[in-house]
Amino acid sequence: MTSESQAPVQPVALLRPFALVDRSELARLGWSFLFFFSLLGGYFMLRPVREAVAVANGVNNIPWLFTGTFVVMILLTPVYGWVVARYPRRVFLPIVYLFFISNLLSFYFLFHFQIQAQLVTQIFFIWISVFNLFVVSVFWSFMVDIYRSSQARRLFGLIAAGGSLGAIVGPLFTATLASVIGVANLLLGASLMLSVATFCIFKLRGHSQEKDPSQRQEDDEALGGSVFEGALKVLSSRYLLLVCAIMLLHNSSATFLYNIRAHVVAQATEDFTRYTTIFGWVDFSVNVVALLLQALLTVRLVHRYGMARTMMIIPAVLLLGFGAMGAMPVLMLVIGVQVAQRSMNYGLIAPSKEMLFAPVDREIKYKSKNFIDTVIYRGSDVISGWAFRFLKDAGLSLGAISWVLMPFLALWIWVAWRLGGHYQGLHEVSVAQAHQRANQAANDAELERSLSPG
Description:
By secondary structure, this protein is mainly alpha-helical. The chain has helices spanning about 25-55, 60-85, 90-110, 115-135, 140-145, 150-180, 185-205, 215-220, 225-235, 240-270, 270-295, 300-325, 330-355, 360-395, 400-450.
């Protein structure tokens, strides 16, 4: 039987400007698009509520929330790894989604009747991070289960557009309706979106790939590796240490900015619904700008200026932003700087981060990424949160704290330059090795043909 990757594609004319979609793939693509739209739409509907919770619980308590999140993530990451290593995504995902829908309905009840309000909102803050780990992050792994690599190259861009659209619609819904329907009812809206995503899983779970055993084995291994193995891989590689330094400097500046914004918003209003509305508009703006960066600039910047100069853009922009906040830490300026920071995170740093891991081998890639995405990323939240708290308790103003960050942003520019040079060297070696393997394969095939009888 001819595999779909070898059969000629009969493209749907209406979708040709966006992707080459075979008619037989149309239904599956539609459900995948709706799945990612509903998933990110629901998540970003909830995210502004999480940000409002951080302010409403007292800005001085934010480091405690970050610490709780870090501890829970460290405890659950091995559990997550154990589950995904032993059960197919199409089996455990519907169960996990239904579990989180029940959680949302419980939170709705507790929010609506204001039962143990402070404790419940603190748990909700941490719950969002767990939700992201178990529900959002595994989406692409499920997509890999139901599409072959040849299909992925053609279709994943269009599926990603569904998620981008959901990430814009979700916070827009929150920003415009939080004051009309109330914050508690937003949880019902998010549970409805997650229910749609769950329904999509059931529609998609019957599809399976036709992969050779070696490729299927690689996909299973992609989610493996412990945090401790990843730490050893990182500590033995200068290149990965530079990647960690970039992530640490980026996330530390983001956490300081998060705390500055929380203080400024708390000074502007004490209304929880108003908090939610403000953060809804922030998320909406971030996702629109990030989408434009991904679509129009990121690849072009890397291609034209190289990885080093592209990664230097972000701290350079933030250096100007923190300098301005040092002189005038007002609400609109702080929000503007954070929109720039987060949109560059999604639009430049996230794609660049994936490119940074492209030249390293598969084992190092996944084990080190596991360590960086948990210990480095979440750990920097905790350290930076408490550092901000220390500076604030020491009597520094928000403007002065902004000035404190500027030397670290300058260090970030230098680290980005060094990392870009290492990346270029590894990339050239990787390309040379790929050419060597291709030539060797061609020579082997030619030798086999010459030795074949007749």
